[in-house]
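Protein in question passed on here:
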Amino acid sequence: MNKRILELQEMMETDKVDAVLYATSGNMQYFLGDDKYFWQRTTDTGGGKTAADWHMDGHFLNKPDCCLYVPADGEPALFLTHNKYEDMRHIDIGKVPCYFPMMGSALKNVLKGKKRVACGESCNRELRRMVLEADSTIETVDAEGYGEKLRVIKDADELAKLRRAAEFTDCAMGMVVKALQPGVTPGEVRGLIANIALSHGTQGLSFDPAAIYVPLGAPVEETFNYPNDAPLKEGTAIGFDFGYVLDGYCSDYGRSFYCGRNERAKDAYKALNEAQLYFIDQIKPGKALNMCFDAMYKKLENSGFAKYLRRAGDFQIMGHQIGIDVHERPWLRSDEESIFLPGMVMCVEPKIWWPGVCYLRVEDMVHVTENGCELLTQFDREYFWL
């Protein structure tokens, strides 16, 4: 049995939980220790409504075609449909293949006598329904927190995968920027980002990529409303937000460029990069995550751009952790109570919205080390004019 499942069972014992059920999700991938299959965002069952993705509904209402069952004492098992069996044949865990409508009946056999069962958020309603159908007296509780807690610290293998994803994304940015010529549309640029994923053998995109065009003089309400098929023209700032999935782990990344010449926008971008790097230089184990906004705001005050630092909601969100899922806890936000720990990999993503002049963003993946941090993404920050 792998180390992660043993750690899960220790937490279950502490909480007096008899069994855990996870449908297709980042937590399933984590506890199986397998990256061969794109678990977390399949069409039918990917992405739960978790605390990490607090702003997304995900697919928590869907029905599972695969379910990881972990008892508090004993061997885990995979309950899965026959076609899913072929995808997961290589995984060294006992399997119980069954027809899709019979999964509940198959689970009923192992849930007999259980008093307390924890369910993950992906396909949560259906998991709970199957548990209560097996025995209406079973207490169902949350299982999402187990994986989230263990996934905060990345081990050496996870870090190597995240480093590779970051390096690939740097290379992809270099390919994309060559296509940024007057006349190219946001749709074409986004298509190029997706085609790089396909042509280079990645498992997919971390999320729907963004190439945000904001022309000089654009009113506030049109920040993100540039038509997808409208050509790039001089006097336009372009903000990128995209990432890829390699070996089951995500990247998330941003840079900004300018078509034409605008010294005000260039000064703002320089100040934004300096503020981000200033904050990154403050990251050390034991420091509070919630210092993020204040640190960058203070640095931007020196250059006169602090008032343009964009707040993402009431919590001044400046980033998040990343791993199997693109958004993992903890977040860089003003109400976050946790501290930086060695082994975290964070995405630091400040943005400037200067109405009528430009929208700019920069985002980098940062590994927290024993005595500081290192940047995993390295694309040239001086590259701005197209």
